[in-house]
Amino acid sequence: MVNDRPEWTNEPDLASRRAGGSVVWANDELFAERENLIKPAKPEFQPWSFGHKGQVYDGWETRRRREQGADQAIVRLGLPGVVSGVVVDTAFFTGNYPPFASVEAVAVDGYPSPAELSELDWTTIVPRSPLTGDSENFFAVSSSRRWTHARLTIYPDGGVARFRVHGSPVADPRLLDLGSLDLAALEHGARVTGASNMFYSSPSNLISPGFAAVMGEGWETARRRDEDNDWVVVALAGTGVPRLAELDTSHFKGNAPGWASLSASVDGESWFEVLPRTRLQPDTRHRFPLAQTREVAHLRLDIYPDGGMARLRLYGGLTEQGRKELTARFQAAQE
After folding, report:
1. Which pLDDT belongs to residue 211?
2. Contact 134, 90 (CB under 8 A)
3. Which one, 36, 39, 80, 331, has least CB within 10 Å?
4. Is the pLDDT of residue 243 over 70?
């Protein structure tokens, strides 16, 4: 099957509820609640689901406008970062989707209220553009700025099932203990740079915030029919010294890997062992103190022979070089 989705849709959804995102305000949600916009699951439709206000939609739907204007919703990104593209998904909205939409973004410190957000100067990252009903509408974004909030405007009204904001998380070093953190965390700026297989789910799930609630929130490969094994490589948030590794197979019972190993690198080319091939148990959080005290910038997880992993964590401290790397990434995204 040919995948014609833009490549940037493989990047994390910064707005997802799973990543801590929130729809903090909408001017109208009479037919369907604004919170549906950032649900991680694909939208669904049940033709028999009617409520007191009509068909119950798995999305955000406003009333029909009888005056000039447009409808808006503001999303606080769970993972502030540089946006590569947005998806305005109008799935199942056919005669009631908005014909046009635009997206703006803003970067702000702290935790402003909706009223305070409305007073800020927002930057347009997607100009007013036509939408197609019952479709994923893709819009690439060229901005290199770090954003904390996104505002979706629909013209003049209607329904949107999902709003995805794909991009690269950029951590604020002022909010981190750089001497003790998860070096492999997506929210700290780590990213997956390669994987042998992503048949069932994205390997970026491995380094996502929080615990996996179900099997589908982890990384699972297809069943191997050869003598090889599956693997994933992570560029860490910065150069650091790891002290503890966590390999979590929660929810993977009949399909957990039998064994796993960890290796690391400074330059991404020369690898050394961090955790030797070790037996794993299904549906278990495994924690391994690491005797290795060398600096690392890249981590490779090998699973044998295949299977699923919920989370991968690598706890330690950033070196002086690592602190500079993380801080420089943040400062570059402010300009």
Report:
1. 95
2. yes
3. 331
4. yes
